[in-house]
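for the recovery benchmark. tokens below, seq after
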């Protein structure tokens, strides 16, 4: 334990300690899930004190238990004719306010703990959007890296052949996440359509030619930048001229970079799991287009960007040994957009010491509890993932709405709605934080605002 963790453990109330003790006995070894719950329970203790109806209905005990957790075998054959077995999952975490909604992650690290943490976060995030969507998450330990399109297609078909029986437009609507982008959504949708003989909105993130929404690919990254702009505005600041750190180089990182450029900022870094690039001149639109082609079409590594551009350095990082040194580069704003726990205490301290005043999380739970504590005590504008990256799922819900009406809205219309939703999440988080005596604390505010709507629905619907 670091000194900071010990300090935090000592200040945890007996309520939180007892709750977490019981939860860890029931979910042994599920570290990511326990981390995500603890972050919320700390915020919710005061809420259940004020709301006896939540205690009477055992809302906290119920909200940490997924309604359904499905696991299935996925068997597929590679290009050499060899048969492989992966695990597929869908966690239907909470459906009190709408059909389960949340992405699918294909990554070798996927397991129950990671999907339960993501599903749990999704419940609060989806509630914050103010749209009628419950929380879920799924995926597989399949690693798409280095696989041919044909192999990815066969895997997606095998995965959907199991998943299809559990989902539906009014039941559960998956989408993308790490390792699942437009290509995978296409193969998954095609298989669903073939085996059910229906064309319905069972997945979001579809291409606009077959039921998708404009701005869905852009939505998570754009939303994270809108959220940062809203936070900065509370201190009369803007992104204009600001140097920014972005991690990752996938969907979220790419469109975060695009929107930072739109708002006049400069992006100095991008990364993948093997290393990061530092471009002191800034990644401009032309360079971003090059990265998008590298990552989305050629499916290459970010190191190639340094080889192809003058003045750029590439640095390998070993993420199993701690956070990337990317976070030590001086900047004013940071957009972690890769994966969970990518910013530890040492990285957070370095960021604060090197001038970061605003962190808007495109990734889910990218900051460790010690890192969060550092940002909040150092008065950094800290937008937690469940609020800051809600733009992706929000536009997924807009895709569902357009699909139900058999209509398409323009880019301008969807972007306008995305911006308005992010503004409302920002306001609701601030208002809840103020109401509960922690003004400016977006972490507590988002947890409280997201929780109350779901808790009220659970009370209304009785002990089910
Ligand atoms: P992509 O698969 O498009 O990109 C993921 C990026 O993160 C890649 O650069 C990848 O590098 C890197 N990465 C993935 N896993 C790790 C790891 N274990 N360690 C270090 N780097 C890693 O995914 P997205 O951009 O869609 O997702 C990024 C984050 O945003 C995730 O936390 C996801 O949950 C979150 N998110 C995504 C949303 C969406 O709409 N897509 C919505 C809300 C949140 P490499 O290629 O080397 O693996
Ligand atoms: O973490 C997330 O919010 C997502 N991966 C997007 C979920 C969705 O249903 O669009």
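predicted aa per position
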């Amino acid at each position: 334990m670091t000194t900071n963790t010990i300090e935090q453990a000592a200040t945890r109330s007996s309520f939180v300690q007892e709750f977490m003790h019981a939860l860890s006995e029931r979910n042994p070894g599920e570290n990511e899930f326990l981390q995500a719950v603890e972050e919320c329970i700390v915020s919710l203790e005061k809420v259940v004190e004020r709301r006896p109806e939540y205690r009477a209905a055992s809302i906290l005990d119920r909200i940490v238990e997924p309604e359904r957790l499905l696991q299935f075998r996925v068997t597929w054959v590679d290009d050499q004719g060899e048969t492989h077995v992966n695990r597929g999952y869908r966690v239907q975490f909470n459906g009190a306010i709408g059909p389960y909604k949340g992405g699918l992650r294909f990554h070798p690290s996927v397991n129950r703990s990671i999907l339960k943490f993501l599903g749990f976060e999704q419940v609060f995030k989806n509630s914050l959007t103010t749209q009628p969507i419950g929380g879920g998450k799924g995926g597989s330990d399949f690693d798409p890296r280095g696989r041919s399109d044909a192999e990815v297609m066969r895997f997606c078909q095998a995965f959907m052949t199991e998943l299809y029986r559990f989902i539906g437009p009014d039941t559960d609507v998956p989408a993308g996440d790490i390792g699942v982008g437009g290509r995978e959504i296409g193969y998954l949708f095609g298989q669903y359509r073939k085996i059910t003989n229906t064309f319905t909105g069972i997945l979001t993130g579809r291409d606009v030619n077959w039921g998708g929404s404009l701005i869905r690919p852009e939505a998570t990254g754009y939303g994270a930048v809108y959220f940062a702009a809203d936070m900065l505005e509370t201190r009369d600041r803007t992104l204009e001229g600001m140097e920014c750190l972005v991690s990752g180089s996938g969907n979220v990182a790419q469109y975060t970079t695009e929107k930072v450029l739109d708002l006049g900022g400069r992006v100095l870094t991008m990364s993948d799991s093997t290393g990061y690039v530092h471009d002191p001149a800034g990644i401009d639109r032309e360079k971003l287009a090059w990265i998008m082609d590298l990552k989305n079409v050629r499916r290459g590594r970010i190191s190639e960007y340094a080889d192809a551009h003058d003045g750029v350095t590439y640095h390998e990082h070993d993420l199993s040994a701690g956070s990337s040194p990317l976070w030590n580069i001086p900047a004013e704003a940071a957009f972690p957009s890769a994966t969970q726990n990518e910013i530890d205490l040492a990285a957070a301290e370095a960021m604060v010491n090197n001038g970061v005043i605003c962190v808007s999380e495109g990734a889910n739970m990218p900051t460790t509890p010690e890192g969060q504590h550092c940002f909040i005590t150092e008065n950094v504008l800290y937008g937690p993932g469940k609020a800051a990256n809600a733009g992706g799922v929000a536009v997924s819900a807009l895709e569902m709405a357009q699909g139900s009406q058999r209509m398409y809205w323009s880019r301008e219309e969807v972007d306008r709605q995305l911006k308005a939703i992010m503004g409302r999440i920002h306001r609701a988080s601030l208002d809840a934080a103020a109401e509960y005596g922690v003004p400016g604390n977006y972490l507590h505010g988002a947890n409280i605002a997201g929780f109350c709507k779901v808790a009220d629905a659970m009370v209304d619907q009785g002990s089910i």
